[in-house]
Specification:
With about 375 residues, the protein is of the alpha/beta class. About 45% of the residues lie in helices and about 15% in strands. The strands form two sheets. A nine-stranded mixed sheet has the order 7-6-5-4-3-2-1-8-9. α1 packs parallel to α2, α7 runs parallel beside α12 and α8 crosses α12.
């Protein structure tokens, strides 16, 4: 299980992607965080992921430090194992915090939308000023100390034209794990999808070129769609299960099925309990069962087993219903999958060793890390 702790409703930028719940701005207290972790340790056997989320979670570095140190104390008391991660806009990253993250095995992911034209379009300071230069320095600092950190990039209709250049730019900066996702809630028109299609086609050619050159990287959504073809027998098991593997905790301690739902508040039907009294299993099961129902629009679709349509959180964000798939999502999946399949077909036919190792060897992540470690030794 993973618990996402919404530490604060506040943010220090004016970006367009805030999932903070609409409370009065009161941050999560250490007592609430501790109780959430205690609940997690009771509900899991051996391992639990704790994700620090926002607003901007690094506004509360001291709280993060305290909760991680508390988690390590719980571990010493044989309360299982905690795995910590924080997702940040990067503005408050510094060497001191990153060194703390290394000492305490805290994974750090940072949002960055690519080239200047793309990044500054939707990630601005509160005065409207650009953030590219300042955050690029923060990103370089992060990747220097944590070279395997994930970089999260959001694509909008007005930034789609920069997608391939943005991916190339971030890889050249040193990013190796790029999580690229659409802003599905944006107003996508067919003309925007045509631009996006050309960018994906260009990116597909680059993917082949980089792989053939032996360059190591992880690039979603290509990796995800390649896996959906190669690992059809188990791919569905890896997809979103709303209210099951990940719950969100708002600053007041109320529990929700995923990161979008805390904005609804504790009086809503999306609240599935409180850390002080535990999970309302009936509410949790009701939400999960509803999200598992087959969507009418997907019933006859040949791509339904490879599609992102099962993400109830995304469905709710874009349509207001966990059972209704956004037309934007549907159009995107139908656009992307054939391009990703063509990439896989080319590399498979060439029997590219890196591609085969990466996608057909379950031990690849560990072996690749060991290989990198040996290569870096003097």
């Amino acid at each position: 299980m993973h618990l996402t702790l919404h530490l604060t409703t506040a943010c220090n930028m004016c970006c367009d992607y805030c999932y903070a719940p609409p409370h009065d701005g009161t941050p999560m207290t250490e007592a609430v965080g501790r109780e959430a972790m205690a609940l997690a340790s009771r509900l899991t056997e051996g391992s639990c992921g704790i994700v620090f989320f926002g607003g901007e979670p690094l506004l509360h570095k001291d709280l993060i430090r305290a909760l991680i140190e508390h988690g390590r104390e719980l571990e010493r008391g044989q309360a299982g194992r905690f795995h910590f991660k924080v997702t940040t806009n990067g503005l408050l990253l510094d060497e001191q915090f990153l060194e703390f993250s290394l000492r305490h095995d805290l994974l750090v992911a940072m949002s960055f939308d690519g080239v200047r034209e793309a990044h500054d379009r939707h990630r601005r300071f509160r005065n409207g000023g650009p953030s590219f230069d300042i955050l690029l320095n923060k990103l370089k600092l992060l990747l220097d100390l944590r070279p395997y950190a994930s970089v999260l990039m959001v694509v909008n209709p007005d930034t789609a034209q920069y997608l391939a250049d943005s991916v190339s730019f971030l890889l050249d900066v040193g990013a190796r794990y790029l999580i690229v996702s659409l802003n599905y809630a944006a107003d996508w028109q067919e003309a925007d999808f045509q631009v996006l299609k050309k960018q994906y086609q260009r990116l597909g050619k680059l993917y082949i070129k980089w792989t053939r050159a032996g360059r190591k990287f992880y690039l979603s959504p290509f990796e995800v769609k390649l896996s959906s073809h190669i690992n059809r027998h188990c791919y569905r098991k890896e997809r979103c299960e709303l209210a099951q593997r990940q719950l969100s905790v708002d600053p007041l301690g109320y529990l929700y099925p995923c990161v979008q739902f805390p904005r609804c508040g504790p009086e809503s039907s999306w609240c599935v309990g409180h850390i002080s009294r535990g999970i309302d299993e009936a509410a949790r099961q009701r939400i999960h069962d509803a999200s598992e129902e087959e969507k009418n629009v997907c019933r006859e679709c040949a791509l339904k087993e490879r599609c992102h349509n099962t993400c109830g959180c995304l469905n709710w964000q874009t349509t207001g219903s966990i059972n209704e798939v956004s037309p934007v999502l549907c159009r995107h999946e139908r656009l992307l999958i054939p391009i990703a399949d063509r990439v896989g077909e080319v590399l498979y036919r060439k029997r590219d060793p890196l591609f085969l190792h990466k996608h057909y060897n379950a031990a690849y992540p560990i072996l690749s890390l060991l290989e990198d470690t040996v290569t870096k030794r003097p």
